Amino acid sequence: MPNVDEFDHTRRAMEIVGIPLEEQQCVFGLVAAVMHMGSVAFVDSDGSEDGSKLDPASQAAAEAAAQLLGTDVPSLVRAVTTRKVVTVGEEIIKPMAPEASTSSRDALSKFLYQRLFDWLVTRINASIGQDPNSECFIGVLDIYGFESFETNSFEQFCINLANEKLQQHFNGHVFKKEQEEYEREEIDWSYIEYVDNQDVLDLIERRMGIVSIVDEQCVFPKANANTLATALYNTFTGKDKKTNDPTDRFSKPKRSEQQFTIRHYAGQVTYSTDNFLDKNKDYLVPEHQVMLEASELEFVRELFPAEKPEPAPSNGPGGRRGGKSGFKFSSVASNFKKSLVALMETLHATEPHYVRCIKPNMAQKPAQFEAANVLHQLRCGGVLEAVRISCAGYPSRRYFHEFVNRFKMLASDQADAAKGDDRKASGAILAELEARITDIEGYQLGKSKVFLRAGQMAVLDKLRSEVMRKAATCIQKYVRRYLAVKHYRQLQAANLVMQKYTRGMLARRLAARLRATKAAVVCQKYARRGAAVRNLQRHKKAATAVQASWRGHVARREARSKRCDLAALRIQSRWRAAILRASYNRKRQATIALQCAVRARKAREEFKKRKASARERGALEGAKKSLEARVEQMQFQLELQKKLKEEAVAERTREVESANRAMEERLARAEEEKSRAVEAARLEAEAKALAEANDAAALAAAEQEREAAKDRIAELQADRDDMAARVASLERRLREAEERASTAETARHDADERVRAIGESLKDLEAHNRQLAEENYMLKARAQLSAGGGTPNGAETGGA
């Protein structure tokens, strides 16, 4: 599966178990930080022989890891490259060499990954809904099977140790279960021998076992694979071998100094001590805890809550005698052994059920079964040993009612005599079978079950199969007899039916044969009549053909005679027609010659007349041109008159407009004078009032004003009369101009009529000229024809 699809599946799985998107990002960020930590490298420091510093080439990886952990690069580098040693009254910061810094970096990566893994397990358990206060639970334990590779290391050692523990529990559980069932059923039984692997577990887990020696070697600073192998060889293969390994489970390979062999329950496995110590070390550094506690990311702070670190002895890596080191050593093997102890306690407190997975072939292909490989897996898984333990006792067991229901047929009389007591019936059946068959022995009856030795259930099943087979044979006999009788009766009934239908068929065949004979006679009658009719018609046709042939011969002979007469008449008519045609042609040619001479003379006379008429046509064309010139002159005069008329109308319009404006001005002045007259009347009235008041001065002034107003009114009336006279004069001139324009229009209309008449006359002249030209052309053609054909006709006539 591609990495992208695998990542999507992981995201969906985290969503299903209830991890929100923010926490998913934090988880992926922490995993990325662990990966970036693997790219961080260290080099020797410039100022110190034992110190180390960050490799400049891994600066980017360190920055990425610090950002993902929520801290800065100096804090991360300081936590990895230095250690704090606590002495009496003071603390010393000790730098570490590049190799020690690399180990510290790996320890930090393991620390991060371990806490993240524990957090994921806790979240998944919480999402499943496990009740911590529940007294009952269902658990599933799935581990790797027994492993034996070409090169086996610390991982295979731990896995095989777990399998040894589980195999011991499996053997004890099977034996205990067998023992409990025997005791519960109250049957007699003896102790069953089985292979116990406690000696292998003692070899690995005891006080001076392999795990203790590996932990002891991890404490030494300069321990390596060779020193570990030497310590194991000295402990288990030296002079104290009988005391340390009495079961001979440990051995040393002949050609290797870094390997040792353990004989497990499933076989011998050779382990390599290379990297054994590094994989077993699990340091807890307080500086790492302090740095992660101070992270800016809340998720990282939750994974690493504040805790008080416990100091470790000073003789560990990075420490010094007389002080306390910052390392806290923890063995992976010891922790794994403690986990196994807790697991065994849980398994002992529960009721386990085992599922053994067997690989049918090494190629992982379907429909392939490798017997040797499967047998080896069964032996390594302890299945064969469990089967042997089970077969050593009473492997076959049945409840009483099941046993009676299955094997009652073997001794039905004894079973019926028990009268419903299944235990008594089971004992009676077994006693009867034991009396008849010597193989049935060693069975026991418990409280609710029948216990049989190995192979006895197969004997009972064989007897049951024989009885069932005999019963089946008997049943088949009666069933077959019944089926045979039924079949015979069916055949008998079918025989009667067949006879009935056969006789009916024969009778129908006889009737059909009689009907066919009668039909044949009728057919022969009609066939003979048809043959006679056809013979008569054939003779009739032959006579008719002979008559037709003779009559045709006579008719053809008469036709030939008529054709000869007709041909003679046609020849005579053709000869007479030829003589008449020759005479007619001679007369016709003479007539044509005479006509040509007469027509030629008439054509010459007509040609002369046409020449005279052509001269007359030239005179007509001159008259036409003069008429056209006159028409053009009249059109020019007409246009000139129209232009004069338009100018007169425009001038009259301007004069009328100016007269109207003057009239309006005069009227305005008249209105003004009228208003003044009104004012004068008012003054006159006031003068009268003043006169009545005997005011002589005011009366004189009013009189003067009245006289002046009268004079002004008289002037205005004179102006109005003058304006009326001028308007009348303009109207008269306008009428005269309109009369002249109408006269000019009439003249123009007459000129148009004359021009149109002249145009029609010209068209008639042109048509007449064309007609004269055509007649002239025809006369010339006739004259030429007459001149060309007159002489030959005359010559022919004279010759004739």
Automatic annotation (TrEMBL):
Region (Actin-binding): 340-362
Residue ranges the record marks as coiled coil: 597-782
Gene Ontology biological-process entries: actin filament organization; actin filament-based movement
Domain Myosin motor: 1-465
Record key words, sorted: Actin-binding, ATP-binding, Coiled coil, Motor protein, Myosin, Nucleotide-binding
Presence of keyword Ion transport: no
CDD domains, per database record: IQCD (cd23767)
Source organism, top-level taxon: Eukaryota
Any Pfam family hit: IQ
Family designation: Belongs to the TRAFAC class myosin-kinesin ATPase superfamily. Myosin family.
Protein name, as recorded: Myosin motor domain-containing protein
